[in-house]
Write a sequence for this structure.
Protein backbone atom coordinates (compact mmCIF):
# COMPACT_ATOMS: atom_id res chain seq x y z
CA UNK A 1 0.00 0.00 0.00
CA UNK A 2 1.62 3.26 -1.13
CA UNK A 3 -0.47 5.64 0.97
CA UNK A 4 -3.25 5.78 3.54
CA UNK A 5 -4.91 8.28 5.84
CA UNK A 6 -3.58 6.93 9.17
CA UNK A 7 -0.80 4.52 10.13
CA UNK A 8 -1.05 2.94 13.58
CA UNK A 9 1.97 1.14 15.02
CA UNK A 10 1.07 -1.62 17.46
CA UNK A 11 -2.01 -3.87 17.60
CA UNK A 12 -2.56 -4.02 21.33
CA UNK A 13 -5.46 -2.23 22.97
CA UNK A 14 -4.12 1.26 22.25
CA UNK A 15 -3.45 0.58 18.59
CA UNK A 16 -6.73 -1.20 18.01
CA UNK A 17 -8.70 1.62 19.67
CA UNK A 18 -6.93 4.20 17.50
CA UNK A 19 -7.35 2.17 14.31
CA UNK A 20 -11.02 1.45 14.99
CA UNK A 21 -11.84 5.08 15.81
CA UNK A 22 -10.15 6.33 12.64
CA UNK A 23 -11.57 3.62 10.36
CA UNK A 24 -15.09 4.03 11.73
CA UNK A 25 -14.79 7.70 10.80
CA UNK A 26 -14.23 6.67 7.18
CA UNK A 27 -10.44 6.81 7.00
CA UNK A 28 -8.13 4.27 5.41
CA UNK A 29 -5.95 2.80 8.16
CA UNK A 30 -2.85 0.60 8.16
CA UNK A 31 -2.41 -1.14 11.50
CA UNK A 32 1.18 -2.42 11.66
CA UNK A 33 2.18 -4.99 14.28
CA UNK A 34 5.75 -6.13 14.79
CA UNK A 35 5.13 -9.57 16.29
CA UNK A 36 3.10 -12.48 14.96
CA UNK A 37 2.39 -13.59 18.54
CA UNK A 38 0.67 -10.32 19.47
CA UNK A 39 -2.70 -11.99 20.01
CA UNK A 40 -1.32 -13.74 23.09
CA UNK A 41 1.56 -11.47 24.00
CA UNK A 42 0.18 -7.93 24.16
CA UNK A 43 -0.19 -6.23 27.53
CA UNK A 44 -3.90 -5.80 26.83
CA UNK A 45 -4.29 -9.55 26.31
CA UNK A 46 -2.38 -10.19 29.54
CA UNK A 47 -4.49 -7.78 31.61
CA UNK A 48 -7.62 -8.39 33.70
CA UNK A 49 -9.60 -6.11 31.32
CA UNK A 50 -10.42 -3.49 33.98
CA UNK A 51 -11.39 -0.14 32.41
CA UNK A 52 -12.18 2.57 34.97
CA UNK A 53 -14.79 5.14 33.96
CA UNK A 54 -17.01 7.48 35.95
CA UNK A 55 -20.57 8.56 35.22
CA UNK A 56 -21.43 5.57 33.05
CA UNK A 57 -24.75 3.92 32.25
CA UNK A 58 -23.56 0.75 33.99
CA UNK A 59 -23.00 2.73 37.19
CA UNK A 60 -26.42 4.33 36.83
CA UNK A 61 -28.02 0.90 36.51
CA UNK A 62 -26.20 -0.23 39.65
CA UNK A 63 -27.09 3.02 41.45
CA UNK A 64 -23.42 3.89 41.90
CA UNK A 65 -22.78 7.59 42.44
CA UNK A 66 -19.67 8.77 40.66
CA UNK A 67 -18.38 11.52 38.38
CA UNK A 68 -15.31 12.37 36.28
CA UNK A 69 -14.38 14.98 38.88
CA UNK A 70 -14.42 12.38 41.64
CA UNK A 71 -12.35 10.02 39.51
CA UNK A 72 -9.85 12.82 38.87
CA UNK A 73 -9.66 13.50 42.60
CA UNK A 74 -8.84 9.84 43.22
CA UNK A 75 -6.03 9.97 40.65
CA UNK A 76 -4.63 13.12 42.22
CA UNK A 77 -4.80 11.56 45.68
CA UNK A 78 -3.13 8.28 44.66
CA UNK A 79 -0.35 10.09 42.75
CA UNK A 80 0.03 12.87 45.33
CA UNK A 81 -0.73 15.37 42.60
CA UNK A 82 2.04 14.09 40.30
CA UNK A 83 -0.11 12.69 37.48
CA UNK A 84 0.18 14.49 34.16
CA UNK A 85 -2.63 17.04 34.55
CA UNK A 86 -3.57 17.29 30.88
CA UNK A 87 -3.77 13.55 30.33
CA UNK A 88 -5.56 12.93 33.63
CA UNK A 89 -8.30 15.43 32.76
CA UNK A 90 -8.58 14.15 29.20
CA UNK A 91 -8.94 10.51 30.24
CA UNK A 92 -11.32 10.99 33.14
CA UNK A 93 -13.46 13.21 30.91
CA UNK A 94 -13.61 10.79 27.96
CA UNK A 95 -13.80 7.54 29.95
CA UNK A 96 -17.61 7.27 30.05
CA UNK A 97 -17.83 7.95 26.31
CA UNK A 98 -15.05 5.42 25.77
CA UNK A 99 -16.86 2.51 27.44
CA UNK A 100 -20.07 3.42 25.58
CA UNK A 101 -18.11 3.31 22.31
CA UNK A 102 -16.43 0.03 23.17
CA UNK A 103 -19.78 -1.59 23.88
CA UNK A 104 -21.91 -0.01 21.15
CA UNK A 105 -19.50 0.51 18.25
CA UNK A 106 -16.97 -2.25 18.90
CA UNK A 107 -19.16 -4.99 20.39
CA UNK A 108 -17.19 -5.39 23.62
CA UNK A 109 -19.44 -7.01 26.28
CA UNK A 110 -18.85 -4.86 29.36
CA UNK A 111 -20.15 -5.07 32.90
CA UNK A 112 -19.47 -3.13 36.10
CA UNK A 113 -17.35 -4.90 38.71
CA UNK A 114 -19.10 -4.53 42.07
CA UNK A 115 -18.03 -7.59 44.08
CA UNK A 116 -14.96 -5.84 45.52
CA UNK A 117 -13.13 -2.49 45.42
CA UNK A 118 -9.63 -1.87 44.10
CA UNK A 119 -7.24 0.26 46.19
CA UNK A 120 -7.62 3.99 45.56
CA UNK A 121 -10.95 3.92 43.76
CA UNK A 122 -13.62 5.58 45.89
CA UNK A 123 -16.47 4.10 43.83
CA UNK A 124 -17.21 1.02 41.78
CA UNK A 125 -16.01 2.21 38.39
CA UNK A 126 -14.02 -0.64 36.85
CA UNK A 127 -15.73 -2.02 33.75
CA UNK A 128 -14.72 -5.45 32.50
CA UNK A 129 -15.65 -8.26 30.17
CA UNK A 130 -17.49 -11.12 31.90
CA UNK A 131 -14.50 -13.43 32.40
CA UNK A 132 -12.27 -10.51 33.43
CA UNK A 133 -9.73 -11.58 30.86
CA UNK A 134 -7.69 -9.19 28.77
CA UNK A 135 -7.47 -11.85 26.09
CA UNK A 136 -11.26 -11.72 25.68
CA UNK A 137 -11.20 -7.93 25.47
CA UNK A 138 -8.38 -7.98 22.92
CA UNK A 139 -10.18 -10.62 20.85
CA UNK A 140 -13.36 -8.53 20.77
CA UNK A 141 -11.41 -5.53 19.46
CA UNK A 142 -9.71 -7.69 16.83
CA UNK A 143 -13.11 -9.00 15.73
CA UNK A 144 -14.39 -5.44 15.38
CA UNK A 145 -11.33 -4.52 13.30
CA UNK A 146 -11.81 -7.50 11.01
CA UNK A 147 -15.24 -6.18 10.04
CA UNK A 148 -13.88 -2.90 8.61
CA UNK A 149 -12.81 -2.97 4.97
CA UNK A 150 -10.66 0.16 5.30
CA UNK A 151 -8.65 -1.17 8.26
CA UNK A 152 -5.67 -3.20 7.04
CA UNK A 153 -3.73 -5.27 9.60
CA UNK A 154 -0.12 -5.79 8.48
CA UNK A 155 1.82 -8.44 10.44
CA UNK A 156 4.75 -8.67 11.01
CA UNK A 157 5.83 -5.10 10.29
CA UNK A 158 7.58 -2.75 12.69
CA UNK A 159 7.47 1.03 12.51
CA UNK A 160 11.11 2.11 12.38
CA UNK A 161 10.84 5.75 11.39
CA UNK A 162 8.50 8.68 10.82
CA UNK A 163 9.29 11.14 8.04
CA UNK A 164 8.39 14.78 8.48
CA UNK A 165 8.28 17.71 6.06
CA UNK A 166 9.98 21.08 6.29
CA UNK A 167 7.30 22.26 8.73
CA UNK A 168 7.89 19.29 11.02
CA UNK A 169 4.56 17.66 10.12
CA UNK A 170 4.22 13.93 9.52
CA UNK A 171 4.39 12.96 5.85
CA UNK A 172 5.28 9.25 5.88
CA UNK A 173 5.78 6.15 8.01
CA UNK A 174 8.55 3.62 7.42
CA UNK A 175 7.73 -0.04 8.12
CA UNK A 176 10.29 -2.82 8.26
CA UNK A 177 9.72 -6.54 7.73
CA UNK A 178 11.70 -9.25 9.57
CA UNK A 179 13.83 -9.82 6.45
CA UNK A 180 15.02 -6.21 6.64
CA UNK A 181 12.99 -4.93 3.70
CA UNK A 182 11.36 -1.54 4.20
CA UNK A 183 8.28 0.20 2.89
CA UNK A 184 7.57 3.91 3.12
CA UNK A 185 3.88 4.74 3.36
CA UNK A 186 2.72 8.25 2.60
CA UNK A 187 0.41 9.41 5.38
CA UNK A 188 -0.45 12.56 7.25
CA UNK A 189 -1.05 10.83 10.60
CA UNK A 190 0.89 8.26 12.64
CA UNK A 191 -0.23 6.83 15.98
CA UNK A 192 2.51 5.34 18.14
CA UNK A 193 0.98 2.47 20.11
CA UNK A 194 4.14 0.42 20.52
CA UNK A 195 3.83 0.17 24.32
CA UNK A 196 6.59 1.13 26.72
CA UNK A 197 10.08 -0.15 27.48
CA UNK A 198 9.60 -2.75 30.22
CA UNK A 199 11.02 -5.56 28.06
CA UNK A 200 14.32 -3.68 27.61
CA UNK A 201 16.54 -4.49 30.58
CA UNK A 202 18.91 -1.60 29.92
CA UNK A 203 16.12 0.98 29.83
CA UNK A 204 14.52 -0.52 32.93
CA UNK A 205 17.82 -0.39 34.77
CA UNK A 206 18.28 3.24 33.76
CA UNK A 207 14.79 4.53 34.56
CA UNK A 208 13.31 1.96 37.00
CA UNK A 209 16.20 0.61 39.07
CA UNK A 210 14.02 -0.34 42.05
CA UNK A 211 12.14 -2.98 40.04
CA UNK A 212 15.02 -4.07 37.79
CA UNK A 213 15.37 -7.27 39.80
CA UNK A 214 11.74 -8.24 39.39
CA UNK A 215 10.25 -10.67 36.93
CA UNK A 216 8.99 -8.98 33.77
CA UNK A 217 5.45 -10.08 32.98
CA UNK A 218 4.34 -8.27 29.85
CA UNK A 219 4.54 -8.10 26.08
CA UNK A 220 7.94 -8.82 24.56
CA UNK A 221 7.51 -6.02 22.01
CA UNK A 222 7.70 -3.36 24.74
CA UNK A 223 11.27 -2.40 23.92
CA UNK A 224 11.16 1.37 23.91
CA UNK A 225 10.45 2.00 20.24
CA UNK A 226 8.68 5.26 21.06
CA UNK A 227 11.59 6.43 23.25
CA UNK A 228 14.09 5.71 20.51
CA UNK A 229 11.97 7.69 18.07
CA UNK A 230 11.75 10.49 20.62
CA UNK A 231 15.54 10.71 20.71
CA UNK A 232 15.75 10.98 16.93
CA UNK A 233 12.96 13.54 16.58
CA UNK A 234 13.56 15.52 19.78
CA UNK A 235 10.15 14.69 21.27
CA UNK A 236 9.14 15.52 24.84
CA UNK A 237 9.01 12.73 27.42
CA UNK A 238 7.89 12.55 31.03
CA UNK A 239 7.47 10.31 34.11
CA UNK A 240 9.91 7.71 32.79
CA UNK A 241 10.31 6.38 36.33
CA UNK A 242 6.63 5.40 36.51
CA UNK A 243 5.52 1.79 36.22
CA UNK A 244 2.91 -0.74 37.20
CA UNK A 245 4.26 -3.48 39.38
CA UNK A 246 2.40 -6.38 40.91
CA UNK A 247 2.96 -8.08 44.23
CA UNK A 248 1.35 -11.42 43.45
CA UNK A 249 2.71 -13.16 40.39
CA UNK A 250 2.51 -16.88 41.10
CA UNK A 251 5.88 -18.62 40.94
CA UNK A 252 7.17 -20.68 39.29
CA UNK A 253 3.97 -20.76 37.22
CA UNK A 254 4.32 -17.07 36.18
CA UNK A 255 0.55 -16.52 36.25
CA UNK A 256 -1.12 -13.50 37.83
CA UNK A 257 -2.80 -14.20 41.14
CA UNK A 258 -5.48 -11.54 41.16
CA UNK A 259 -5.23 -8.93 43.92
CA UNK A 260 -8.90 -9.66 44.54
CA UNK A 261 -7.49 -12.34 46.85
CA UNK A 262 -6.24 -9.52 49.08
CA UNK A 263 -9.24 -7.23 48.71
CA UNK A 264 -11.54 -10.11 49.69
CA UNK A 265 -9.55 -10.52 52.93
CA UNK A 266 -6.36 -12.42 52.15
CA UNK A 267 -2.85 -11.35 53.13
CA UNK A 268 0.81 -11.96 52.31
CA UNK A 269 3.45 -13.51 54.55
CA UNK A 270 7.19 -13.79 54.02
CA UNK A 271 9.44 -16.81 54.55
CA UNK A 272 9.36 -16.15 58.29
CA UNK A 273 5.57 -16.53 58.32
CA UNK A 274 4.99 -12.84 59.05
CA UNK A 275 3.04 -10.16 57.24
CA UNK A 276 5.13 -7.15 56.23
CA UNK A 277 2.72 -4.32 55.43
CA UNK A 278 -0.78 -3.14 54.60
CA UNK A 279 -1.54 -5.12 51.48
CA UNK A 280 -4.47 -2.91 50.54
CA UNK A 281 -2.31 0.11 49.70
CA UNK A 282 -2.10 -1.32 46.19
CA UNK A 283 -0.69 -4.20 44.20
CA UNK A 284 1.66 -2.01 42.18
CA UNK A 285 3.70 -0.66 45.07
CA UNK A 286 3.62 -4.06 46.77
CA UNK A 287 5.90 -5.53 44.09
CA UNK A 288 9.06 -4.01 45.59
CA UNK A 289 7.86 -4.90 49.09
CA UNK A 290 7.70 -8.56 48.10
CA UNK A 291 11.05 -8.39 46.30
CA UNK A 292 12.61 -6.93 49.45
CA UNK A 293 11.69 -10.03 51.50
CA UNK A 294 14.13 -12.96 51.80
CA UNK A 295 14.43 -14.65 48.43
CA UNK A 296 12.12 -12.09 46.86
CA UNK A 297 9.16 -14.37 47.57
CA UNK A 298 6.05 -14.40 49.72
CA UNK A 299 2.94 -16.49 50.26
CA UNK A 300 -0.57 -15.22 49.60
CA UNK A 301 -2.80 -16.75 52.25
CA UNK A 302 -6.60 -16.95 51.96
CA UNK A 303 -9.51 -19.37 52.37
CA UNK A 304 -12.35 -21.19 50.61
CA UNK A 305 -14.63 -18.13 50.70
CA UNK A 306 -12.06 -16.03 48.87
CA UNK A 307 -11.30 -18.87 46.46
CA UNK A 308 -14.96 -18.99 45.43
CA UNK A 309 -15.10 -15.19 45.00
CA UNK A 310 -12.02 -15.20 42.72
CA UNK A 311 -13.29 -17.85 40.34
CA UNK A 312 -14.78 -15.02 38.27
CA UNK A 313 -11.25 -14.22 37.06
CA UNK A 314 -9.85 -16.21 34.14
CA UNK A 315 -6.33 -15.62 35.52
CA UNK A 316 -7.30 -17.18 38.83
CA UNK A 317 -8.77 -20.21 37.07
CA UNK A 318 -5.40 -20.54 35.33
CA UNK A 319 -3.61 -20.40 38.70
CA UNK A 320 -5.86 -23.17 40.01
CA UNK A 321 -5.48 -25.29 36.87
CA UNK A 322 -1.69 -24.95 37.05
CA UNK A 323 -1.72 -26.49 40.53
CA UNK A 324 -0.28 -23.40 42.20
CA UNK A 325 -2.80 -23.39 45.08
CA UNK A 326 -1.79 -25.32 48.21
CA UNK A 327 -4.75 -26.38 50.35
CA UNK A 328 -4.74 -27.25 54.05
CA UNK A 329 -7.36 -28.22 56.61
CA UNK A 330 -5.55 -26.43 59.44
CA UNK A 331 -2.55 -24.22 60.11
CA UNK A 332 -0.23 -27.14 60.80
CA UNK A 333 -0.96 -28.55 57.37
CA UNK A 334 -0.62 -25.09 55.80
CA UNK A 335 2.79 -24.66 57.44
CA UNK A 336 3.87 -28.04 56.12
CA UNK A 337 2.60 -27.24 52.60
CA UNK A 338 4.39 -23.89 52.45
CA UNK A 339 7.46 -24.51 54.57
CA UNK A 340 6.53 -21.62 56.86
CA UNK A 341 7.16 -21.84 60.64
CA UNK A 342 3.93 -23.04 62.21
CA UNK A 343 4.24 -20.87 65.34
CA UNK A 344 4.83 -17.66 63.39
CA UNK A 345 2.11 -18.53 60.88
CA UNK A 346 -0.35 -19.18 63.71
CA UNK A 347 0.48 -15.89 65.38
CA UNK A 348 0.10 -14.04 62.07
CA UNK A 349 -3.26 -15.68 61.39
CA UNK A 350 -4.51 -14.82 64.87
CA UNK A 351 -3.44 -11.18 64.55
CA UNK A 352 -4.97 -10.80 61.09
CA UNK A 353 -8.23 -12.45 62.12
CA UNK A 354 -8.46 -10.21 65.17
CA UNK A 355 -8.11 -7.13 62.97
CA UNK A 356 -10.55 -8.54 60.41
CA UNK A 357 -13.08 -9.19 63.18
CA UNK A 358 -12.70 -5.72 64.66
CA UNK A 359 -11.19 -7.11 67.85
CA UNK A 360 -8.01 -5.08 67.46
CA UNK A 361 -6.18 -2.64 65.24
CA UNK A 362 -3.88 -3.98 62.58
CA UNK A 363 -0.24 -3.21 63.33
CA UNK A 364 0.26 -2.08 59.70
CA UNK A 365 -2.81 0.12 59.61
CA UNK A 366 -4.92 -2.07 57.33
CA UNK A 367 -8.61 -1.30 57.70
CA UNK A 368 -10.10 -3.07 54.68
CA UNK A 369 -11.05 -6.64 55.50
CA UNK A 370 -13.89 -8.88 54.41
CA UNK A 371 -13.91 -11.04 57.50
CA UNK A 372 -11.49 -13.47 59.20
CA UNK A 373 -10.04 -16.46 57.38
CA UNK A 374 -11.50 -19.88 58.18
CA UNK A 375 -10.28 -23.37 57.28
CA UNK A 376 -9.71 -24.85 54.81
CA UNK A 377 -6.88 -22.47 54.01
CA UNK A 378 -5.18 -21.82 50.68
CA UNK A 379 -1.77 -20.41 49.81
CA UNK A 380 0.04 -19.46 46.60
CA UNK A 381 3.74 -18.65 46.37
CA UNK A 382 4.25 -15.25 44.72
CA UNK A 383 6.89 -12.76 43.72
CA UNK A 384 7.03 -9.10 42.75
CA UNK A 385 6.86 -8.33 39.04
CA UNK A 386 7.07 -5.51 36.55
CA UNK A 387 4.01 -5.42 34.29
CA UNK A 388 4.43 -2.28 32.22
CA UNK A 389 5.91 1.20 32.24
CA UNK A 390 3.76 4.29 32.80
CA UNK A 391 5.95 7.05 31.38
CA UNK A 392 6.60 8.01 27.80
CA UNK A 393 5.97 10.70 25.21
CA UNK A 394 4.20 13.79 26.45
CA UNK A 395 0.88 14.38 24.70
CA UNK A 396 -1.93 16.93 24.69
CA UNK A 397 -5.64 16.32 25.26
CA UNK A 398 -6.01 14.92 21.73
CA UNK A 399 -3.06 12.52 22.28
CA UNK A 400 -0.86 14.58 19.96
CA UNK A 401 2.85 14.18 20.73
CA UNK A 402 4.62 17.30 21.97
CA UNK A 403 7.98 18.70 20.94
CA UNK A 404 9.13 21.69 22.95
CA UNK A 405 5.62 21.84 24.39
CA UNK A 406 4.00 22.17 20.94
CA UNK A 407 2.03 19.40 19.18
CA UNK A 408 3.79 17.72 16.24
CA UNK A 409 1.25 17.85 13.38
CA UNK A 410 0.02 14.35 12.62
CA UNK A 411 1.94 12.47 15.34
CA UNK A 412 0.07 10.78 18.20
CA UNK A 413 0.90 8.40 21.05
CA UNK A 414 -1.26 6.13 23.19
CA UNK A 415 -0.86 3.51 25.89
CA UNK A 416 2.63 2.70 27.09
CA UNK A 417 4.20 4.81 24.34
CA UNK A 418 2.70 7.90 25.98
CA UNK A 419 2.92 9.38 29.45
CA UNK A 420 0.28 7.84 31.68
CA UNK A 421 -1.69 9.04 34.71
CA UNK A 422 0.34 7.30 37.43
CA UNK A 423 2.70 10.10 38.34
CA UNK A 424 6.11 8.81 39.40
CA UNK A 425 7.24 5.43 40.68
CA UNK A 426 4.83 2.56 41.37
CA UNK A 427 2.64 4.02 44.09
CA UNK A 428 0.46 6.17 41.86
CA UNK A 429 -0.98 3.29 39.90
CA UNK A 430 -4.73 2.78 40.19
CA UNK A 431 -6.33 -0.39 38.89
CA UNK A 432 -7.06 0.12 35.21
CA UNK A 433 -4.69 3.06 34.67
CA UNK A 434 -2.87 1.14 31.98
CA UNK A 435 -5.94 0.08 30.00
CA UNK A 436 -7.56 3.50 30.32
CA UNK A 437 -4.41 5.16 28.98
CA UNK A 438 -4.26 2.58 26.18
CA UNK A 439 -7.88 2.58 25.08
CA UNK A 440 -8.63 6.19 26.04
CA UNK A 441 -5.63 7.80 24.39
CA UNK A 442 -6.03 5.43 21.45
CA UNK A 443 -9.64 6.51 21.03
CA UNK A 444 -8.72 10.20 21.29
CA UNK A 445 -5.81 9.77 18.88
CA UNK A 446 -7.81 7.86 16.29
CA UNK A 447 -10.68 10.30 16.39
CA UNK A 448 -8.42 13.33 16.00
CA UNK A 449 -6.19 11.65 13.43
CA UNK A 450 -9.28 10.89 11.34
CA UNK A 451 -9.78 14.63 10.91
CA UNK A 452 -6.10 15.47 10.54
CA UNK A 453 -5.36 12.60 8.18
CA UNK A 454 -8.30 13.13 5.80
CA UNK A 455 -7.24 13.40 2.18
Amino acid sequence: MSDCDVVVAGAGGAGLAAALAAAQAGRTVVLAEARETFRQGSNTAMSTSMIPAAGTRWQAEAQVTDSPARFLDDIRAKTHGQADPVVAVALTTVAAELVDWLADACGVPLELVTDFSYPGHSAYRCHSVPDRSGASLHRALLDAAANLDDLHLVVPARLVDVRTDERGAVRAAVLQRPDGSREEIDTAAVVLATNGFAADADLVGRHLPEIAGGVYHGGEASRGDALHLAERLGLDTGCLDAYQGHGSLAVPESILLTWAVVMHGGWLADAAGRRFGDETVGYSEYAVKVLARPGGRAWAVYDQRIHQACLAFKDYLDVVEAGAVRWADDLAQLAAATGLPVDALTATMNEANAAASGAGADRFGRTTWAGPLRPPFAAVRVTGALFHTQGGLLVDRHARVLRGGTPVPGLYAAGGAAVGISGHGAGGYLAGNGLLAALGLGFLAGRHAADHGSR
In short: The mean pLDDT is 96. The chain has 15 helices and 21 strands. The radius of gyration is 22 Å.
